[in-house]
Amino acid sequence: MKKTALYNIAVVTLALIAACIVAAVQPLFFSRENLANVACQATPLVIFAIAQMIPILTRGLDLSQGGVVVATSVAYALLAQQIGTGAGIPLALLTGFIAGAINGLLVAGFDISPFIVTFGMGSILQGLALVAANGQPISNVPAAFAAPFYAIVFHVPVPLIVAGLVAVFAWFVLEKTTIGRRIIAVGSNERAAFLSGIPVGSTLVMAYAMAGVLTSIGSILLSSRISSGHPTAGADTALQAVAAAVIGGVSLFGGRGTVVGAVAGAVFLTFVGNALNLLNVSSFFQYVAAGTLIILAVVADRLRNSSDNFMGRTK
Amino acid sequence: MKRKSISVFLLLLVIATVGVLVWRSNLPSGPTRNKVVVTNAVVHVDENASLQDPKPIRRYKIGVLFPFLASPFWVNEAYGILDQAKKLNVDVVWLSADGYDNIAKQNSQIEDLAVQHVDAILLAATSATGTVPAVNRASSLGIPVFAHVTSSDTGKVLSSVIDDDVSIGRKQGEFMGKVLGGQGQVAMLDGPAAADWSTRRVRGFKDVLAQEYPGIRIVAERYGTPDRDDALRLTQDILSANPNLNGIFTVADGMAMGAADAAVAAGRIGSITITTASFSREAVPYMEKGLIKLNVDENPVLMGRLSINNVVNGLNGTPVPQIIYVPNPAITAQSLRSVDAAHQWAPPGWTLH
Asked: Which of A18, A132, A144, B28 has the smallest number of Cβ neighbours within 10 A?
C-alpha cells in the first residue's frame, strides 16, 4: 500500500513538473481555450479507457473495442438517417452491448483466451461496418448528429457531461455494487473467487457487456466529433485505451485499478499529445514519446506488483 | 472507502472547473489581418506556367496539416510546401495525422493550431466530411483556412489547391479502354476504404468504362493501403482467381509496383495492362521496362509550392481563386523524358527532419 501511494505521488509530481516546463516554453498551454480544447478532445479516450479497464480488472482484455467503435459509428449514422438522432442513439448502443455480451459468453463459456475472442469479434465488427457502410463514410446525416460532441448545456460542453456521467456510473458499479466487487474478486484470483461461490461466468459476461456499451457511448461522441458515420476511423481504439488505462495505474495482472486512474491516464495521454503539438514537436517523434510513457507505466506496474507480492505473501 | 470518495469528488471538481473554463471562452484577437478576398474563379494551372512568387507583407506563421506522410507523394508535396515557405520567408508549423482514419486526431490538430493564433491553416483533410466541425470552429475564431491536395466539405475553406481526382480516374479508364479495344476483364486495386481521394478516382474510372467501354468487365475490386506489400498480396490472389485478366487499375503507383511485381512473378505481365497515378520516382524504372503502362502525374512539389503561394496571396489581401487545379498529365513510357522532375520530386536525400 505504501509503495502504491508513493507511486501515485511520484507520478503526479512528475506530471506537474512536466506541465510547468511545457507552460514555461509555450504559455498558451494553460490558456483557457487550450484547456477547454484538451478537455473535450480527451472525452472519447476517457470513456474508452474506463470501458477497457473493466475487462482488464477481470484479468482479461477487450481488443474488439475498435470494431465496436466503427460498428456503432456506422449503426448510429444509418439509424440517424432512418429514424432520427434521438431514437438512433439507444439502438446504436445495443451494438456494443450485444458484441460485449457475446465476448463474455465465449470467454466464460468456453474458457478461451479473451485476447483471441475479442480480437476475432473486433474483426467481425470491422467487416460488418464496412459492408453496412459500403466502404464509404456516411455523411448525409441530420444536423443533430453532431450535437453529442458540440452542443453546450448550461455553459458546459456535452462531451464533458457524458464523460463525467460515465465515470460516476463506472465508479458506482465497481465500488458500490456486488457485481463490481465480484469483478475485482475474479480478477484478483479467479480460482479463489470460484471456490467462494462467486458466479465467475455471469460476472465475466456482465464485465464485457458493460465494456461494450461504454465503448459504444464513446463511439457516439467520436462519430459526432467527425459529424459522420465512419467504417474505419477509430479502429485502433483498443490499444490506445489499454495504454491510457495502464498509464492510469490499472494493472494488466487484474484486480487492481480505479476509475479515477483510468480517467487520469486518458487525460494525461491527450495532454502529452497536445503539449507536443503546441511545442511543434514532429508527429513522428510523438510516437516515441507515447511509447516510452506506456513502457514506463508497465514497468512501474510490474515493480509495484512484485514488491507487493514480496511483502505481502510467502511463496 | 473515504479516500475513494475524495478521489471521485476531486474528479468531479476537475470536470466542473474545466467546464467553467470553457464558458464563453474566446480567443484574444491575434495580429490584425487583411481580409482574405476570394473570387469565384476556378483556375487550371498550365503545366509549363512559371510560378509567380508573392512577397509576404509581414512574416506569416502558417499551420500546415498532412493526413499522412509515409508515402512518396506526401513527402514530395511536403517538400514543395516547406521549400517554398523557406524561399518566401514564411514560418511553417506542420503536423501529420499519420493515417486517413485518424480524423479525430486531425480535428484536434486543427484546434491546437487555432489556439496558437497561426495566421492561416493550410489543411489536407483526412476526410472531407469528418473535418467540417473543426474547420468551422477554426474559421469562427477568425483563422482563415486554406486547403491543399484534399479539401473539407465546408464553405469555410476559402481556397483550395487540389488534384482533379475524378479526372485522374477517367484518364486511366480511357487509356485502359483503348488499349484493351473495349473488351476484356480488369481488376481494381482501390485505396484505403473510405478515403475520399481514392473514392473519386475509382468513380472516374468506373464512369468511363460504364459509359464508353461497356464490353470491359470489372472482375475484382479490393481495398488496400497504397503500398507494395498489400498490393502484391491482393494481386497474387486476383491473378489466381482470374486466369483471363487483361488489366489492373490502381489508385496510386505504390500499389501499381506491387501489382507489377506479382504479375511478373506469375509470368503474366505480357498480357496485363497496369495503369496508375501519383508518378513517384520509384515507379520510373517500372515504366521504362513497360511494366506500368500509364501513370497519371499529380505534380506534388508544384502543388506544395502553389499552396504556399496561395495562402500568402490570400493573407496579403490579393484576391485568390476558389479552386486551383494542378495539371494532371497522363505519362507513358514515351513521354517519360519530357517530365520536369523539379515539379515532381524532392531532391534525392531530402528528408522531413
From this structure: B28
